[in-house]
């Protein structure tokens, strides 16, 4: 966590690290308050849903080394700023972020402060004060009665994109040697990244609301060379924005979410830029890009609809490989990710080009 106001940044950082025997693994749900926020987002009673979620996921840990020693590469690492979906938070995409980090990326998974996260917080109090007075929580907020959803969500998507831009600016400050204190007092020192990130190779990525955020961020910040949008929720973006989207976007859709109108908006972008691609993963649902698809059993799946018919690990492979092929192409990486270029054309098992007609869950 950087900064003591709402304008600060809160993110989980995924990065290549050296193996460490007996390394601690971080909790997937960092605090119980997130369980309450997920209950609110699902429109369920906190009284029973939050304890249920805590019992189901409270002990789950991400299979990574917490505050592991950073592993310098032979060349500087490309950077990805990741934007979560509506009702999610910074750890919900650990599987895809971990996969990208293992392939040589530094990934900053933001936790947005626009009331779209299930819950989040900041620490306005100075160090040394009691924890009870040092945190201010920002709850999930539904569209206020009487307010049009587009205007509410459009304001949020602009704030989210601004936070993505500030994320990039933060890593620029680190590269310049500026001291960036972590208010949470973790053992990881951000200064180790000073000479390790290639700021000429930066992308923005996100799921659902985060997918729309990623598209908008490329307009606000030209240094984002491309965007990867996982099942993007295109509704919050104003129509006047589309002619301004000049950077290539990879839309990786699920089979059960998109509407014809949403896909038409994606095609409007692809018609202006031949490098913008749209593919759909068959047998997937809107929550398939999240970690929930790996963790939920039948009962939780009934509440959150987190699984499709496709094996979650196969879905992760398709998603990450398509993203890697796209990132290599547009960040000019010297890797072998182009071996998965066919996925960008919708060629492969369980993937098709464009978006087949289906009944949307919207």
Descriptive report:
The longest helix has 27 residues, at 149-175. The protein has helices at residues 33-41, 46-57, 94-102, 131-134, 149-175, 209-220, 260-272, 292-295, 298-304, 312-331, and strands at residues 11-14, 77-83, 106-110, 119-122, 136-139, 197-207, 227-230, 249-254, 277-281, 351-353. The protein is 32% helix and 15% strand. Residues 127-133 have low confidence and may be disordered. With 362 residues, the chain is an alpha/beta fold. An eight-stranded mixed β-sheet has the order 1-3-2-6-7-8-9-10, with helices on both faces. The protein has a two-stranded antiparallel sheet with strand order 4-5. The protein has ten helices and ten strands.
Quick summary of this structure?
The chain has 362 residues and is α/β, with parallel strands linked by helices.
């Amino acid at each position: 966590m950087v900064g003591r106001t709402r304008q600060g940044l809160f993110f989980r950082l995924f990065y290549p690290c050296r193996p460490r025997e007996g390394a601690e693994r971080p909790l997937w749900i960092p605090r119980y308050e997130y369980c309450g926020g997920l209950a609110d987002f699902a429109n369920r009673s906190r009284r029973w849903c939050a304890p249920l979620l805590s019992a189901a996921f409270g002990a789950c840990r991400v299979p990574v080394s917490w505050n592991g020693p950073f592993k310098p590469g032979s060349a500087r690492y490309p950077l990805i700023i990741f934007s979560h979906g509506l009702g999610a938070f910074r750890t919900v995409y650990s599987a895809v972020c971990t996969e990208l980090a293992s392939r040589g990326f530094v990934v900053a998974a933001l936790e947005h402060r626009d009331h779209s996260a299930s819950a989040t917080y900041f620490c306005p109090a100075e160090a040394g004060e009691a924890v009870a007075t040092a945190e201010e929580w920002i709850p999930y907020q539904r569209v206020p009665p009487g307010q049009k959803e587009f205007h509410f969500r459009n304001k949020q998507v602009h704030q989210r994109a601004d936070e993505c831009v500030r994320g990039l600016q933060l890593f620029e400050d680190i590269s310049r040697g500026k001291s960036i204190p972590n208010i949470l007092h973790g053992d990881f020192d951000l200064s180790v990244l000073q000479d390790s990130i290639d700021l000429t190779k930066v992308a923005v990525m996100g799921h659902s609301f985060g997918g729309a955020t990623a598209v908008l961020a490329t307009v606000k910040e030209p240094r984002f060379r491309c965007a990867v949008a996982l099942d993007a929720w295109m509704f919050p973006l104003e129509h006047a924005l589309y002619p301004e989207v000049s950077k290539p976007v990879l839309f990786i859709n699920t089979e059960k979410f998109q509407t014809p109108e949403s896909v038409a908006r994606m095609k409007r972008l692809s018609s202006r830029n031949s490098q913008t691609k749209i593919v759909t993963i068959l047998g997937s649902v809107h929550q398939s890009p999240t970690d929930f698809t790996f963790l939920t059993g039948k009962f939780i799946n009934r509440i959150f609809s987190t699984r499709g018919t496709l094996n979650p690990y196969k879905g992760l492979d398709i998603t990450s490989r398509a993203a890697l092929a796209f990132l290599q192409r547009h960040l000019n990486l010297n890797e072998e990710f182009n071996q998965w270029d066919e996925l960008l054309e919708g060629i492969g098992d369980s993937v098709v080009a464009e978006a087949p007609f289906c009944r949307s869950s919207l």
